[in-house]
Specification:
By secondary structure, this protein is mainly beta. The protein has two domains: 232 residues, no CATH class; 77 residues, Immunoglobulins (Immunoglobulin-like), CATH 2.60.40. 5% of the residues lie in helices and 40% in strands. The protein has four helices and 27 strands. The strands form seven sheets. Strands 9-8-5-6-18-15-14 form a seven-stranded mixed beta sheet, with no helix packed on it.
């Protein structure tokens, strides 16, 4: 099956005459003072392209590695989720025609979920250090009423306050960062209890503690209005009564460990990473500890109520093998080996070819082959210009497109999750 479309050179290659053009975007700068207060992360600006693409701009790579916390809307599961995304020197590139001298880390939510832009997944916000930047575009998943603080930048990312930043606890292992010398015993003498009480201190750290908004980040107390849940209010007390009295029913709501699950997603054998998802089906947020078998890597990470958090760990073998153990209050929750059958980046399964060159008419035709069993949406760029577009190719199919360039000569590049997959040059001998 084939399809054909045209990428036109107009306005000195400043736009694309096709649907889905992504030229231009909403850029948000991080203040100098704020940047200095956020562990010298080095991020100068964040640019949102519509509702599904995010570009983190760095002035240099001296501050790397670092992590950013991306809040997404998963349209398939109809819920908000969180992605802890590591940025290393290998994860950034430069697009001088678009972003000048900045180093760029790219995140496309539809590529992360292995879907297409039409599927409705969205980027809600990104947290860099202590600063949360909300997508200013008109995204359907971002409410515009007073019931939340998405529109004013106070996204309840869960790690803005307290010791937990970018998904990892301060002083403990950050992805690609300094590793702790402390080693945990692995699976010896551990038992899995069905329920555990809330850890009030951890839950305050796991959620941005904002009484004004975000009921998802509250932690409950039995006896409030007879519904088994209660908001914690410093002024009214833990059961919502005005006198601050906790009442007779002050027993914390339990966390069911059977409702916390570690799911291996995929591996990146080039970067030596294994991606996991932690599912939390409890009606309250949790913070869990994790460690990697045969590795000193360990840390803590939080998950919102009835949601999931994605994170990556270093693999212990060249083919992406890692075994991660989750703990909650020292009880083993789950042990899972990485999913080495699935590569996070579809390297070798999406290719670009030159079909023909018409120098007289200043045209070149390319086609993309998708050797996957699902549709793939790739970012198409013309090197040395600010032209970029998203091309969706059906499963096991090809997509043809024609560009208008002088003498039909151009280098076209395909990107996926910010990584260059393939490139071809037309009109060159």
């Amino acid at each position: 099956m084939t399809d054909e479309r045209t990428l036109s050179r107009r306005d000195s290659l400043k736009g694309i005459a096709t649907t889905g053009a992504l030229i231009g975007g909403a850029g948000i700068g991080l203040g100098t003072a704020s940047a200095q207060e956020t562990d010298d992360h080095g991020v100068a600006q964040v640019t949102f392209q519509q509702c599904h693409s995010l570009y983190v701009l760095l002035e240099d790579t001296d501050s790397l590695p670092t992590n950013v916390w991306i809040r997404t809307y998963n349209a398939e599961r109809e819920r908000f989720e969180n992605v802890v995304k590591p940025i290393t020197g290998a994860h950034v590139t430069q697009f001088p025609a678009i972003y000048g001298d900045y180093y760029v880390a790219e995140f496309n939510v539809f590529q992360f979920y292995n879907r297409t832009p039409d599927d409705g997944d969205e980027i809600v916000s990104v947290t860099v250090g202590d600063e949360t930047l909300v997508n200013p575009n008109e995204c359907s998943s971002v409410p515009n009423d007073d019931s939340n603080d998405y529109d004013n930048g106070n996204d309840h990312n869960g790690y803005k306050n307290g010791d937990y930043k970018n998904g990892y606890k301060e002083g403990e292992q950050k992805k690609h960062g300094k590793k702790s010398d402390k080693k945990k015993g692995y699976g010896k003498g551990d038992s899995k209890d069905k329920t555990h009480k809330y850890d009030e201190k951890k839950l305050k750290e796991a959620c941005k503690y904002d009484k004004k908004v975000h009921e998802k980040c509250e932690y409950g107390k039995k006896g409030d209005k007879g519904n088994g849940k209660g908001k914690y209010d410093d002024k009214k007390g833990k059961n919502g009564d005005d006198n601050g009295d906790n009442g007779d029913n002050d027993e914390p709501v339990s966390i069911d460990l059977d409702d916390i699950e570690l799911i291996p997603e995929c591996v990146d054998t080039v970067f030596g990473l294994a991606r996991y998802r932690i599912e939390n089906a409890n009606d309250a947020p949790v913070v869990v500890d994790y460690d990697v078998h045969l590795s000193p890597e360990e840390g803590s990470i939080g998950i919102e109520a009835n949601s999931a958090t994605y994170f990556e760990v270093g693999a212990t073998t060249s083919d992406g093998v890692a075994t991660v153990q989750l703990r909650y209050n020292d009880a083993v929750v789950d042990n899972m080996r990485s999913n080495t059958d699935e590569e996070c980046i579809p390297r070798g399964r999406i290719h670009l070819f030159v079909d023909s060159v018409d120098a007289e008419n200043d045209e070149a035709t390319f086609y993309i082959m998708n050797y996957n069993d699902i549709p793939r949406s790739v970012t198409v760029r013309i090197a040395g210009t600010d032209v970029e577009d998203i091309a969706t190719v059906d499963p096991n199919s090809s997509l043809y497109f024609t560009i208008t360039v002088p003498d039909g000569e151009a280098t076209v590049e395909l990107y996926y999750e910010g990584e260059l997959l393939d490139a071809e040059t037309s009109g060159a001998e």
